[in-house]
Design brief:
Layout lengths: L4 E5 L5 E10 L7 E12 L5 E12 L4 E12 L4 E10 L4 E4 L3 E5 L2 E5 L1 E5 L4 E5 L3 E4 L14
Antiparallel strand pairs: 1-2, 2-3, 3-4, 4-5, 5-6, 6-7, 6-8, 7-10, 8-9, 9-12, 10-11
């Protein structure tokens, strides 16, 4: 199938749009749909928009599980960007898990972790294992450095 597209609303009434450059289905595995160059737009709980892209994916229609692979990038209109090697999305529960390293970038920070869990449709985001956060703020020129003891 060329340029498949799916739009709708989640159970908590947030809109989404999922598209791909192509999709393929093996007739011996009718519940699995292979996707190439996956893109999505999803309304988040704070009404910002999350843009998702991945080189390829596999959607299990029976389990409502979307597995995204290679070059997975999430960008938010609220200002963060996340890079993952893979992500498993449970579309019915609104949960995301990545067992591979994740990097998050904002205007003034970066965060790296070994694993990611998103639960309750994004209400809770957990970074697990080897978590390192770097803050890139500019020091106030009028502020004296903190005393060291």
């Amino acid at each position: 199938m060329q340029a498949p597209k799916l739009t709708g609303y989640t159970r908590d009434h947030r809109w989404y749009e999922l598209s791909a450059d192509g999709a393929a289905q093996d007739i011996t595995k009718p519940d699995l749909v292979e996707l190439q160059e996956v893109r999505a737009k999803i309304e988040s709980g704070d009404k910002s928009t999350i843009y998702l892209s991945a080189a390829d994916g596999l959607f299990n229609r029976k389990g409502n599980i979307l597995t995204l692979n290679r070059k997975v990038v999430l960008k938010s209109s609220s200002g963060f960007e996340m890079h993952l090697d893979e992500a498993v999305v449970d579309t019915s529960k609104g949960e995301v898990v990545s067992e591979k390293p994740v990097s998050v970038f904002t205007q003034d920070s970066t965060l790296n972790a070994d694993r990611l869990e998103v639960v309750k449709s994004g209400e809770i985001v957990r970074f697990i294992g080897g978590v390192v956060m770097n803050l890139h703020g500019q020091a106030n020129a009028n502020q004296a450095p903190a005393d060291k003891q």
